[in-house]
């Protein structure tokens, strides 16, 4: 099944593969997040699928939004995150297969999943501060819950990239395997989840995440407002220019 640039394949073992097709870096926009939400909703409605593997075609898992060539969309970050919030509403467990970079909002997408499988070559970064920008995609909620408050502050304040081995060390990824085995390992983990009683798994997941959606929506509303405010600053323009020119940014605090 095809949902825009997203495909859904229901395979053996009651595992659905949801794949993003925007190689090489799989930048997202409002339309892509809507397509992902529609694919998740299709899985939720099916009795023959009990877990999702989220993966991506190309070099990167997801490099977030493309600030160099922003897609036309209405509503700004608020509308974007309204679609992102739908991913947290899904009732089916998700395992993200991260073969490459999960950067910025792409890290947020990875953290929306229940589990992350990666390889040493994978790269993770909450690079917002290096762009003169506020983080988004509910990383205010998800990142501290996954790696702890101090590790989250480290990643958010510095914007530094970490590899798969460090990510595994701080709990950001749950399985670390060779690059060629990432998808198979993600499917194996999703298969273990799908092998449990489906009503029990959904009930347990709903209990463990019972206030998550509300906290995610609150966080995204605040994050979107801060992003809109900082988007108008000199530092944000400089951060985008510096990234495009592959040089250190020269921030001035204005």
CATH fold-level assignment:
2-enoyl-CoA Hydratase, Chain A, domain 1
The profile of the biggest β sheet is:
7 strands, mixed
Count helical runs.
10
Strand order of the largest sheet: 1-2-3-4-5-7-10
Number of domains: 1
The beta-strand count equals 10
Would you list the SSEs in sequence order as H and E?
A: EEEHEHEEHEEHHEHEHHHH
Helix percent band: 40-55%
Backbone shape:
globular
The low-confidence runs, each spanning 5 or more residues with pLDDT under 50, are: none
CATH superfamily, by name, is 2-enoyl-CoA Hydratase, Chain A, domain 1
Approximately what portion of the residues adopt beta-strand conformation? 5-15%
Rounded radius of gyration (Å): 17 Å
From the coordinates shown, what is the CATH architecture?
Alpha-Beta Complex
Averaged pLDDT, please?
95
Q: Given this structure, which CATH class is correct?
A: Alpha Beta
Measured distance between first and last alpha carbons: 47 Å
Structural class determined from secondary elements = alpha/beta
